[in-house]
Amino acid sequence: MPVNGTPAHPTAATPKGPRPEPIRFFGTTWLNRDNGYRARRAAVSAGSLAAAAAACVVLRLAYQGLQIAAVGGWVGLLIVVMFAACSALAFGHTWGAFTKRPDPDRQASLRGLMTIGFVGSLLAYFLRSLTEAPGEKLHREEYEKARAQYDRRTTRRTGNPARRRG
């Protein structure tokens, strides 16, 4: 079994039908919450919070560089507002992506905003990983729906359906 908890090759013990979609850093451990799921969640929480803190330190150093360059208060204010607005929008977009699949075209058009507002995305990832694997609820709903459809399709009927028609 690979590190991410997803079997490399299906075996006789692997159930037939739809398979759960792996989640980054979690593989398929989110399905049964086994194989170190809680430890992974703690590591993802700590890692995303540490990355957000490091990013804030880097942004602070960049801001101090602008102050040393004496570009003026107006430019400094614009930079702060830009990063704050982009981070807030990135937070909202990332948070929303945990509950529904984002539109690929819209996601491509927001790539620049998400890059600038990466601190907001990291904070959304941190907050979501406190309660579940980020995107777990969406993946669980999709998997259960696919599983129910598969079970309905493969359930064998008993008796002759032509006899019931009368």
TrEMBL record:
Membrane-spanning ranges: 42-63, 75-98, 110-127
Superkingdom as given in the UniProt entry: Bacteria
Transmembrane as UniProt keyword: yes
Keyword entries, A-Z: Membrane, Transmembrane, Transmembrane helix
Biased composition (Basic and acidic residues): 141-153
Stretches the record annotates as Disordered: 1-21, 141-166
Protein's name in the database: EamA/RhaT family transporter
